[in-house]
Amino acid sequence: xxxxxxxxxxxxxxxxxxxxxxxxxxxxxxxxxxxxxxxxxxxxxxxxxxxxxxxxxxxxxxxxxxxxxxxxxxxxxxxxxxxxxxxxxxxxxxxxxxxxxxxxxxxxxxxxxxxxxxxxxxxxxxxxxxxxxxxxxxxxxxxxxxxxxxxxxxxxxxxxxxxxxxxxxxxxxxxxxxxxxxxxxxxxxxxxxxxxxxxxxxxxxxxxxxxxxxxxxxxxxxxxxxxxxxxxxxxxxxxxxxxxxxxxxxxxxxxxxxxxxxxxxxxxxxxxxxxxxxxxxxxxxxxxxxxxxxxxxxxxxxxxxxxxxxxxxxxxxxxxxxxxxxxxxxxxxxxxxxxxxxxxxxxxxxxxxxxxxxxxxxxxxxxxxxxxxxxxxxxxxxxxxxxxxxxxxxxxxxxxxxxxxxxxxxxxxxxxxxxxxxxxxxxxxxxxxxxxxxxxxxxxxxxxxxxxxxxxxxxxxxxxxxxxxxxxxxxxxxxxxxxxxxxxxxxxxxxxxxxxxxxxxxxxxxxxxxxxxxxxxxxxxxxxxxxxxxxxxxxxxx
Length: 542
What we know:
The structure is a single chain. It contains 21 helices and 15 strands. Helix 6 (89-101) packs across helix 18 (443-467) and helix 11 (286-299) packs across helix 12 (314-327). It has 2 domains: 4-83, no CATH class; 139-484, Aldolase class I (TIM Barrel, Alpha-Beta Barrel), CATH 3.20.20. An 8-stranded parallel β-sheet has the order 4-13-12-11-10-7-6-5. A 3-stranded antiparallel β-sheet has the order 1-14-15. The chain is 40% helix and 12% strand. It is globular and about 95 Å long. The protein is of the alpha/beta class.
């Protein structure tokens, strides 16, 4: 059956034929043939070209969107940037990514369009002695001292699973990562054949479903894990404790969506409902978590191993930190996933109101490790609506060593935020398993755009660092980012936020509310706060 998205094109073809048959019998029929014939040729060209998946999936009708887009500044001026319509940040993000992915000049005439006197306006101070930086390929070493340390880019692809994304989207992302020398996080859906095709660096994310390393009962299988983890393409192992977009929640993939490919990739029965529990079964306490990290590191042959989490109850994170100090078992890295993170589908309340935002979560993790004098031994990554070079600067200034991004790389694939990820009807072939829809996405072309977006964003980061007189992102600190807090006051992030001195937690609890209230409640042997937690919390907050 012909997909309904082709109907405008088919209708134009039929009208062309009807007018052609009417020539000689109907006056002006030739003009009809000419008009609809031209439209038919345009629709045919849309179907045959490989640059824009939207045009291949919606021949002819998609041109109305591109017509409005081509008008550009005039449309934005009168319909988007008017006094009555607020410009959504997501649209600005998309515009930046599209320009950089297509290698289009991302300059703006007539100066800033932001209210520089509005609350929360942020900027980066520059130097009168700018530096010269030779390359934008900024890297850090993760797992230093391990058998197989990894030199990672400071900007990488965040976790997005095969199943959530199409095969062609995975192909394009991984080839783009190989071209640019950065890593591609597999997401918890395991390593598919499409992750392996182009050989780009992988970070294998292990979720609570243990996909790719599970036995028939859904429990962790060390032999299956080792077989995948020792693949040279896998550079690091990441245990997913929670996801920023829907922390504390598991997931279900309906049986109808568990295709043969997905079943083989995840190690689950084909056509059977696939569960991803809310919690892991391989460990139940902070100490057991760190023992599991150590076990995976050993099974992988000494590859950097860590975990990703969204911060919820502070005492649970503090419990993990206390377990690190008590046992001496350290993750090589921690990825902090902000509550503003994206997802293909999650309950509205979870996306809007569960989980700490990235900035607060990142500073809590960073401060805790600094306070325990462990920060130099544990790397920190961060994710949560990071798209621009300035986003990277601000995140690194707050304590991260590197950042991951998902939506930015999705935009570079051609995502137009149609918000139809959960329907399997993605118009650009990015988030669908529909063979005809994803066939419109050309992996070769989109891999180049993924690479371009990564490179051009790092070029922007290099220019920002040079303007500030710095030489590497590791030199960024909270003193470099300034925020307006009112119409008459500005503060550096160093003054606006509390930063714990090195080793302070080894001597006394810092005079900071979250530590004062929750540090003493945390236990290295349990994620659960003691029964008196409520009373202690209330007394300290009064």
